[in-house]
TrEMBL record:
Residues 7-162 form the Thioredoxin domain. It comes from Stutzerimonas balearica DSM 6083. Transmembrane segments: none annotated. It is found in: Periplasm. This is Thiol:disulfide interchange protein.
């Protein structure tokens, strides 16, 4: 019942208690409708994707806003993070994220990785530097390096690159709703309003089902 009530609330207001001025959200302004929709990973659910980079200061500052929102999403919404891949350290960090996901420990260390980069000056530029840091967070060093260099992780890195291209992203953080709509902090007008746009587009997709 709580989930049903929450889903109804999403139609009229954001989870932060701010008015969701849906009439103001228009394609070509706050969000872009992709010409070629991208298939979602969980058919039957409304998929919300955040593309990010651990080295991005805007992504780091977005974390305290987006994380509580993610925790309160209703059951018919599937949220996932995808690392943006623009070459160099972006790809290395993306491969680290995917390796940690494959090990089932990404959620445990996600915040710590962000803090290491932005607060401690640890750029985590090599697999060895990543492994050394992650060991301080309770992640087995050798297991991480094995996962990082595995065929499965490298295959998922290539998939992430293709998704970034399909979404036509040029920076981060960027959000995608149901493979159809792209928007970011700049187009939406700030972190809180970005999530209002997300709520609006989630309800738009829910109503269309």
């Amino acid at each position: 019942m709580r989930k049903l009530v929450l889903a109804a609330v999403l139609a009229t207001c954001s989870l932060f208690g701010l008015p969701a001025v849906a009439a103001d959200f228009q394609a070509g302004q706050e969000y872009v409708e992709l010409k070629s929709p991208v298939p979602v990973s969980e058919p039957g659910k409304i998929e919300v994707v955040e593309l990010f980079w651990y080295g991005c200061p805007h992504c780091y500052k977005f974390e305290p806003t987006i994380n509580p929102w993610v925790e309160q999403l209703p059951d018919d919404v599937a949220f996932k993070r995808i690392p943006a891949m623009f070459g160099g350290v972006w790809n290395a960090h993306g491969q680290m994220f995917i390796a940690l996901e494959s090990m089932g420990v990404e959620r445990k260390v996600h915040d710590a990785v962000f803090r290491a980069y932005h607060e401690q000056g640890n750029k985590l530029a090599t697999p060895e530097a990543m492994a050394d840091f992650l060991q301080t967070q309770g992640v087995d060093r050798d297991a991480f390096l094995k996962a990082y260099n595995s065929f499965g992780v490298k295959s998922r890195v290539e998939q992430a690159k293709k998704l970034g291209m399909a979404y036509q992203i040029s920076g981060v953080p960027v959000m995608i709703v149901n493979g159809k709509y792209r928007f970011d902090l700049g187009s939406a007008g700030g972190p809180e309003r970005t999530l209002q746009v997300a709520d609006f587009l989630i309800e738009k997709e829910r109503s269309a089902q």
